[in-house]
Design goal:
Helix content is 16%, strand content 36%. It has 305 residues and is α+β, with helices and mostly antiparallel strands. It folds into 2 domains: 150 residues, Rossmann fold (3-Layer(aba) Sandwich); 135 residues, Tumour Suppressor Smad4 (Sandwich), CATH 2.60.200. Strands 7-6-17-14-9-10 form a 6-stranded antiparallel beta sheet, covered by helices on one side. Strands 13-12-11-8-15-16 form a 6-stranded antiparallel beta sheet, with no helix packed on it. A hairpin with a 2-residue loop joins strand 6 and strand 7. The longest helix has 16 residues.
Amino acid sequence: MPKAGIIYNNAKPVASRIAMELQGKFHTVGWDVFLSTGINGILGCSSPETPVCYTPIQGLAPPGFDTDMQFAVVLGGDGTVLAASRQVAPCGIPILTVNTGHMGFLTELYVSQLPHAIEHLLTGDYEVEERTMVNVQVLRENEVLWEALCLNEMVLHREPLASMCHFEIAVGNHAPIDIAADGVIICTPTGSTAYSLSAGGPVLLPGVPALQLIPICPHSLASRTLVFPNEEPVNIVPVNTSRLVMTVDGSGGCYVIPKDRVYLERSQYITRFIRLQSPEFFHILREKLGWGVPHIAKPTSMESP
């Protein structure tokens, strides 16, 4: 019996209702269906009192979600998609993302398009687009205190009312660099349209094999975004007397105290997005972010002087 999954945001009544309806539809056509809420993929938050507070990357898959599952339907907004990506990536399960939220930058379609999409799912008539992910670890004397699988970005920043942060950052085997700023962002091409964009970073097309380092409000005209190959691991050591806060994909994270080290590397796991037609990234940029929309009328003809 073929097997499918449904991950939904149970805080949204419409997502919960559609999840139940989809489960019934799949059962009717002879599919085995497993349901899970996106909350299982939300990252835990550790603290100085409880520094180890996380689920290992390989342990986030919900019951019934494994390599035999052909696909999963994700119902929610971008936060649910990010949580779902952590849950299914280690199993290699492709996801069809349905927007029941607001922006829905990472979603493939709207609820009204779902009946047509299900027909394509059941017949296997779709493409799969692969997106790079990053493993993030916080280490103290080489002991892993916290780890997460990241699709968008890792942010390391100061707490409210704290002073400026100082970071020693080593990319691959290159010489370490010093950055003074409110914080730093390491993001994937997928995350280049999220916090990175707001912080002044460039947009990267999803297929570009690169990561970005973006200082947040740097105290130097020379500290600007760095784009580097995604094969290069990154080590970040905060040179501060006070603790910092780290978040991954805007979900959860941990405190980083002096002498801790943050280590990032491209993950062996990827997010596999189901596309019902060939991906067109510029169309998404135009529809969601208004990129390339003309603000003045184009000339209708060129007249000789």
